[in-house]
Write a structure and sequence with these properties.
The structure is a homodimer. Chain A contains six helices and six strands; from the N terminus they run H-H-E-H-H-E-E-E-E-H-E-H. In chain A, a hairpin with a 7-residue loop joins strand 2 and strand 3. The longest helix of chain A has 14 residues. Strand 6 of chain A pairs antiparallel with strand 6 of chain B. The structure holds a DNA duplex.
Amino acid sequence: MEFVKIKEKLDNYIEQEGMRHSSQREEVLRTLWQSEKHLSAEELYNEVKENIGIATVYRSLNLFTECGLCNEIYFNNETTRYEISYGKKHHDHLICKKCGKYIEVRNDKIEKIQKQVARNNNFLLKSHKMDLYGVCEECQKE
Amino acid sequence: MEFVKIKEKLDNYIEQEGMRHSSQREEVLRTLWQSEKHLSAEELYNEVKENIGIATVYRSLNLFTECGLCNEIYFNNETTRYEISYGKKHHDHLICKKCGKYIEVRNDKIEKIQKQVARNNNFLLKSHKMDLYGVCEECQKE
DNA sequence: GTCTGTGCAAATTGTTTGCAACTTA
DNA sequence: TAAGTTGCAAACAATTTGCACAGAC
């Protein structure tokens, strides 16, 4: 998704909440958007630290999460990572234990069964998270 | 599983590694075993703090995890919790967002599809983790 | 000019570690 | 008696917060 759309969503939220615009927030958002990877707060901070303090990075990321722009990702007990989720469908992850790479996957069958499982337990399903851990193609060759 | 079996597994590991037995480790293990819930280190410590320090609780839990006796569980970014996994089949969790209760579930269909997904991506699957978040039967009534 | 956002440093939380005293084998 | 284990307090890492100052509207 283009950055303008993302920015617009943030701006709407900011106005709706009576908050103010700031260049720092925009820079954090753009940096996250530009990155192909899921960044941690620390990593993101390293990209912007000439202009922005770490506390602001955290505050921005929390704000983005709050307004539905981004997702917090937790793999095991590793540091929280962030991804822009706005406009993206839910996906699961294949995570390589050797190189740390992750692959996004979608599978409708699994989602169907998940709904079934929830129904069988009289559970009202809201969301889910599935991670598959293993060794990726490249790392298997080594 | 009876405690003796669990204890035996620990003792074997301890001997194999040239470590020594200790009453503290046994008490931590028994406390975890007795509990129906997945305890955090802090909660476990509260049950044994008359005899045992928090550092020993952490050291014990790490040891148990290392030797395959227990599992670390991470829900979102909450504190790590522990469950005895020895002798138990892998299971997934339904987690109630309201009361925090979790239900263990097993579903072979999902495991099959997970293997398929991994194969499609030339991924060598080692383990997985699936959490379903929602509202449990009781909490829906409120 | 008022009120929000930022940066810094200090506080907090969960967990690990160094070290002297204690236990086990 | 030699080596591993414990408890305490200090160290750590990730994140949040208090406060004075800067910036938005």
